[in-house]
Amino acid sequence: MSDNTSETVSSAIREVVDANHILFDQGVVDGFGHVSMRHPIKPNHFLLARSMAPALVTEADVLEFDADGAPVEAGGPAVYLERFIHSEIYRIRPDVVAVVHSHSPAVVPFSVVSGTKLRPICHMCGFLGAAAPVFEIRDFAGSGSDLLIRDAHLGAALAQSLGQSAAVLMRGHGSTVVGNTIRQAVFRAVYTEVGARLQSEAMRLGPVTYLTEEEAEATTTTNNTQIDRAWLLWLKAARNRAMAT
Amino acid sequence: MSDNTSETVSSAIREVVDANHILFDQGVVDGFGHVSMRHPIKPNHFLLARSMAPALVTEADVLEFDADGAPVEAGGPAVYLERFIHSEIYRIRPDVVAVVHSHSPAVVPFSVVSGTKLRPICHMCGFLGAAAPVFEIRDFAGSGSDLLIRDAHLGAALAQSLGQSAAVLMRGHGSTVVGNTIRQAVFRAVYTEVGARLQSEAMRLGPVTYLTEEEAEATTTTNNTQIDRAWLLWLKAARNRAMAT
Amino acid sequence: MSDNTSETVSSAIREVVDANHILFDQGVVDGFGHVSMRHPIKPNHFLLARSMAPALVTEADVLEFDADGAPVEAGGPAVYLERFIHSEIYRIRPDVVAVVHSHSPAVVPFSVVSGTKLRPICHMCGFLGAAAPVFEIRDFAGSGSDLLIRDAHLGAALAQSLGQSAAVLMRGHGSTVVGNTIRQAVFRAVYTEVGARLQSEAMRLGPVTYLTEEEAEATTTTNNTQIDRAWLLWLKAARNRAMAT
Amino acid sequence: MSDNTSETVSSAIREVVDANHILFDQGVVDGFGHVSMRHPIKPNHFLLARSMAPALVTEADVLEFDADGAPVEAGGPAVYLERFIHSEIYRIRPDVVAVVHSHSPAVVPFSVVSGTKLRPICHMCGFLGAAAPVFEIRDFAGSGSDLLIRDAHLGAALAQSLGQSAAVLMRGHGSTVVGNTIRQAVFRAVYTEVGARLQSEAMRLGPVTYLTEEEAEATTTTNNTQIDRAWLLWLKAARNRAMAT
Questions:
Q1: What's residue A243's pLDDT?
Q2: Contact yes or no for A212/B144 (Cβ under 8 A)
Q3: What's the Cα-to-Cα distance from D43 to each of B65, D96, D154, rounded to whole Å?
Q4: Which DSSP category does A71 fall into?
Q5: Does any CB of chain D come closer than 8 Å to the CB of residue C198?
Q6: pLDDT tens-digit readout, A26-53
Q7: Is the dihedral of CA A90, A95, A97, A98 positive or negative?
Q8: Which residues pair with C176 in a beta bridge?
Q9: Cα(B119)–Cα(C172) distance, rounded to whole angstroms?
Q10: Is the separation of the CB atoms in C50 and C83 below 8 Å?
């Protein structure tokens, strides 16, 4: 690699590490969950940590995966069972540059109640659009699976469910959120969790006025210009906690 | 400026910085939200940080804005899109010395359920009076806005909604709280959030007895004498977390 | 004072300081609320901090009050408006050695919903007995008060409401909890808050089985032998946070 | 003991200490609750701390108990009243290597509402199987007990209620969770609490789709291979808090 190329990749790896730490610090992931970034030089590859707790990821733990979700270097460490979430979304969504998969706690309840949709309740959650789709793995793996996206077939089905949305809920499991930068994906993952919490509280007070689709779109456009403000705060907060050192 | 004048302004700026840190530490603001103070020497101007996360604001980040919400120094850093919240409230409420805008999480649900009012549930929230008014931006910007108070027209409409109240909710967005000192505004912003949390919990237990308007007024008068007690605690707690250093 | 007497008083003051810090660290008090202890040498007097945030209290801030709630040393610092909560309970409850007054957040909702009683939901809350009584200040001060126990008359009315109970809720305000040691009072204040949280959650799941009065009594007897286990933990946790230094 | 044997026991004791700290740090235990491990050399004995707050346990505090729940060394420190939870489960469940007893806050509400079962709501909670059984102590100790498992008779009744399950709720008290390693027992105790929180939230949104029994079994098999990932994270988090030093 040239020095420039090498620096581009190093810089992407650092963002992946920071994203891991932020997602833990903001309560989106616990010991489980993962975040990837499309490879900045080889756009059908992606960068993702080896199988480990996100809070503890360092640069040395970030691996390169190919378009089929296989690690490029053979004989490496154990990798996430669900790397196919990432590979299959990158395959059909060329606009997507980063993918966050989590079991963030306020979102799971919306995944298991089929009559209630997760919808944009405030301007920070406009990216949810009309409502987040829900992926029911039973439709593809039967009623005896371990709920994990453990092969390309299930990854492709999940990617289909996601469609052109920013987030897809996974029944009895969690959610997957995408962005056109890693910072946008992290921003959306955090505010999907925040929005779910707000909606659950609001629904107990009475019938809720959600954003219109036009409001959802307009707020998304505005928020896209404000992402670094949150990112810099969250990075500082995560570093203050110093879990990875 | 004379030394005295200069010290008055510096002291005001320090309070604005402290208010930013307290509001973050108490969970009223996250990466977003802002707090301003009427300029102590030029009463139609106000002091407000540049566009950034409140937790990270330092004295150098606090700017002076004129009566129309324009920064006094041209060519400066990016400023908050919603500075018109502040300018328009200062314009029609000469009694107001400080303004807090936030998306504090327990309050947003009350902004989107038109049948349920945020009301004073305990003596710490007496300043809410009969109930907090709700500003519906659709009445002024149509149903396709980004929900932000991004011009003087919307700022004036919000200020009208606020009227003589201490707090106004903003549908799908958050709230704006005012005070006759910056410490009172911060105190009210914190206890608006606390009160919303208590009301939401109480409503699930059964029909709620709220404060009478007379009780709301009497508790406000008493609490106004106790604000420094909370401020000093919150300042120490915020400094212990040391986000801004 | 003899050396022994002096050491007895110093030791009591240290417990009062520790109790203040623990109550803050456990989320029972915020900037407001207070805890007192019957004077170990002059049993109709009591020890209570001057008017300040509990988290910041040091030994020098603890004052002696007489049986009528007046500070023994004239010309001292400002004192809590609601010191009559303490004086009037000590007057009619000779068994009480410590009193905690707080606005602990899970308890306030139970104070404003007249149809729902706070009851012992688990063995840690057995001291609540059949149910906690609720003090409605409107019955004594009319519907325009500031809800505070600001004189001996209201203190006596609250003490009557408390009766032989361990805790009394105060409508729109908070609660007061007593114990026959300061550690027991703190223990009960913490578990009143914990129990209120559990009851509110349980009530949303369906009809609740509470402790019988016999179970309430038996668990109280057992828990009274276990209080130091919690106290030592809470003290260490409070010191780790080091708010008062 | 040989050096090997001695190292095996020391290593087990260190795991018991770590488990104590993790359970506190993850909010499963507070000042109360306990975790034991079957003795690695003498399989009908077990290791359990003396009576103290779990967060403060050090290696010197871990004692050996015999099959009847008696400490092996006479004249030692005070021991937990409820050690019979451990002894009686080890007696009838040879597969069980570790036992966690707690009052974890989201679980208690499910213990007191007879019409609502705690069920596996997501893949992390598959070990709950069809639903967690509930132990009603009144059926064995009458309606005037202190709810504690204070003798072998009650311990045996609780063990019977547990049956072949991973977790049993205890009415008005808490729960007991078992594992075939201490890390698995801790993992399950944490995710019993997490699952209870999720289920309570989901139930307010509408009718819930739980895991099928086949899904519960498949997810358990998968999760058993991932336990160390969480354990290492939790251990680091607990050590960062440093309560026991």
A1: 82
A2: yes
A3: 75, 10, 22
A4: B
A5: yes
A6: 999 999 999 999 999 999 999 999 999 9
A7: negative
A8: C101, C168
A9: 12
A10: no
Residue C237 with chain D: CB contacts under 8 Å: 55, 243
Cα B234 to Cα B212: distance, rounded to the nearest angstrom: 29
Residues of chain B contacting C113 with CB distance shorter than 8 Å: 202, 205-209
D215/A144 CB distance under 8 A = yes
A122 touches chain D (CB under 8 A): no
The values of phi and psi at residue C178, to 5°, are -125, 165
Alpha-carbon span B37 to C2, nearest angstrom: 55
Q: In which element (H, E) is residue D65 found?
A: strand D62-65
User: Which residues 6+ apart lie within 8 Å of C1 measured at CB?
Assistant: C9, C41
What tokens were used for A33? 């969950």
DSSP A94-159: TT--EEEEE--TTTHHHHS-TT------SGGGGGGTT---EE-THHHH-TTS-S---SHHHHHHHH
In terms of Cα–Cα distance, which of D160, D163, D166, D159 is closest to D221? Answer: D166
Mean pLDDT, chain A cut into blocks of 10 residues (245 residues total): 88 98 98 98 98 98 98 96 98 98 98 97 97 98 98 98 98 98 98 98 98 98 97 96 78
For residues A120 and A132, what is the distance between their CA atoms, to the nearest angstrom?
9
CB contacts, 8 Å: C126 with chain D: 146
> What gap in Å lies between CA A195 and CA B105, rounded to an integer?
9
Write down the catalytic residue from A7, A73, A82, A88. A82
**In terms of residues, how long is chain B?**
245
Confidence at residue D185, expressed as pLDDT on a 0 to 100 scale? 98
What lies within 8 Å, CB to CB, of A65 at 6+ separation is A36, A45, A46, A47, A48, A71, A72, A79, A83, A86, A87
CA-to-CA distance for A213 and A222, rounded, in angstroms? 14
**Distance (Å, whole) CA C28 – CA C32:** 10
How close are the terminal C-alpha atoms of chain C, in Å? 29
Q: Is A241 on the interface with B (CB under 8 A)?
A: no
Do the beta carbons of residue D16 and residue D36 sit within 8 Å? yes
Scan residues 77-106 of A and list those with Cβ closer than 8 Å to D: 81, 103, 105-106
In the block, which residue shows the tokens 């286990």?
A: C229
| Tokens describing residue A210 | 């959600």
> Going edge to edge, which strands form the sheet with A34-38?
A62-65, A46-49, A34-38, A98-102, A174-179, A167-170, A134-135
Secondary structure (DSSP) of C34-57: EEEEE-SSSTT-EEEE-SS-GGG-
Contact across the interface for B236 and C243, Cβ inside 8 Å: yes
- Residue with tokens 């829900």, as numbered in its chain: A134
Nearest-Å Rg of the Cα atoms of chain C is 17
The model's pLDDT over D133-157, given as tens digits with 9 standing for 90+, comes to 999 999 999 999 999 999 999 999 9
The alpha carbon of residue D155 and the mean position of all alpha carbons in its chain are separated, in whole angstroms, by 14
CA dist B119 and B132 (Å) reads 7
Determine the straight-line distance between the first and last CA of chain D, rounded to whole angstroms: 29
3-state SS of D175-186 is EEEEECCHHHHH
3-state secondary structure chain B: CCHHHHHHHHHHHHHHHHHHHHHHHCCCCCCCCEEEEECCCCCCCEEEECCCCHHHCCHHHEEEECCCCCECCCCCCCCCCCHHHHHHHHHHCCCCCEEEEECCCCCHHHHCCCCCCCCCCCHHHHHHCCCCCEECCHHHHHHHCCCCCCCHHHHHHHHHHHCCCCEEEECCCEEEEEECCHHHHHHHHHHHHHHHHHHHHHHHHCCCCCCCHHHHHHHHHHHCCCHHHHHHHHHHHHHHHCCCC
Query: In whole angstroms, what is the distance from residue A7 CA to residue A16 CA?
Result: 14
- B177 phi, psi to nearest 5 deg: -125, 140
ipTM above 0.85, yes or no: yes
Six-digit token pair at A225?
């210009």
Structure-block tokens of residue C210: 């509470």
Percent of chain C predicted with pLDDT > 70: 100
